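Lab notebook page, bench 4
Experiment: in silico fold of construct C2
Operator: M.H.
Input chain length: 384 residues
Purpose: comparison with the prior construct
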Amino acid sequence: MVRPVVLLLLLAVAALTVASCGGEGREDRLVALGEQRPSFDRSGWRTDFSRRTAPLEEIQTGGPPRDGIPPIDDPRPVEQAAAETFLSERDPVLVVEAGGAARAYPLRILVWHEIVNDRLSGRPITVTYCPLCNSSLVFDRRVGGRELSFGTTGNLRRSNLVMWDRQTESWWQQLTADAIVGELAGQRLRPLPAQTLSWAQFKRRHPRGDVLSRDTGAERDYTRNPYLGYDEQASSPHLFRGRVDGRLAPKERVVALLDAAPPVVVPFSRLRREPVVELGADGTPAAVFYQRGVASPIDADAVSRSKDVGTAGAFDRRLRGRTLSFARRGGVFVDRETRSSWDVTGRAVAGPLRGARLRPLRHDEQFWFSLAAFVPEARIAQRP
């Protein structure tokens, strides 16, 4: 398998680094030679760098220039029938719901763009994905009564995407939703619930939902993965400065319940053995469901050939005045109280509670190293 750094060098030679978050081959050579890594370039920015909540020395160039990884500003969703021509059943899609509508954002597209400025049921949203951290987050892009639109700075902090807004040129940390540099430093975007599903799972759950199309305004080969081999659990993160938290392997996938204080993490390695994990999340009785059938977007040269990493959902176990408990039975999750069957989206698909839905808890699936770098107080859920 081709190592990530080797691939990035090949992409640089092919002049394709403008479309990937990994950085230029020249930087990798500088690191190998022991030379100092260049800092980011401030020229051309109207950003007020005197206003910041993060040290500037933690920010470094990722290789491409500002918006060299082009955000999608004019998304053109299509019906599911049209998407069948380019998505496989195991394709991972980030699912967002608003006002009764649901839209799928294929990660095979997001890996090349990282940001989509969109509207769903009239709500202005920004859909983001950082391949180096495997973090998929969605935000309401209104701040202080002003609607913002976002792009990629071309820079990283702790290997995570640093975004910028076009209205004030403030810089934002994707993983934390915070403005870290500029006029809006200290402000925070409002995260919105989202869940990664397979294309097959999305179709079953949202038969009327639509899909982000490949008509993005950019020329990209959406059949290819520009991060070939990056999804290796024990391998080192790319362009990461600092100590990696050794409690888990660097690229162990984790489900992070982000609204708990402190946030709670459940490793995928545990979920593969225990497809249902019940835990307390800041006083909330929670359940994390895990289901296989979702491919990695950053493993093989094509998603259809990538390894199965599965997906997860996190939910409040309380429903209609009682707390449910769950076990995995075949391909569904069954509550012990009513014997109703539930899917990975928290919807009852059979039994006395059919049609009911558990309250989703905001969560993200990401690599451990990135979550631990920004949320060092996160605790790993322990078995009772």
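Observations: The chain has two domains: 4-212, 253-380. The CA atoms of residues 18 and 68 lie 5 Å apart.
Next step: discuss at group meeting.
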